[in-house]
Amino acid sequence: MKILRHKYHAVSTKKDGKNFDSKMEGRYYEQLKLRQLAGEVIFFLRQVPFDLPGMKYVADFQVFLSDGTVEFIDVKGMDTPMSKAKRKAVEEIYPVTIKIVTKV
Asked: How far is CA 35 from CA 4, 15, 30, in A?
């Protein structure tokens, strides 16, 4: 049996029965839950898709903060040229800014 490995060596993980592409994404999820308990975050969504011409971009989280702002977060161990290009396309088409989290 062949073991599939992530091309950037990310190790998938499971938190609360939910699958995450990397341990870092799982840790960010746990931070969001703590921020929610503290009242800073009202709620958050996972794997938020944006349709682009001929492709799709999926942000890891959409976070609704108690001050009324909304953040789109992508957790990246490595921000590739392709992900940068897709993110730029999203930000040109949609009125959003996607924040990149590289350390958790």
From this structure: 34, 16, 9
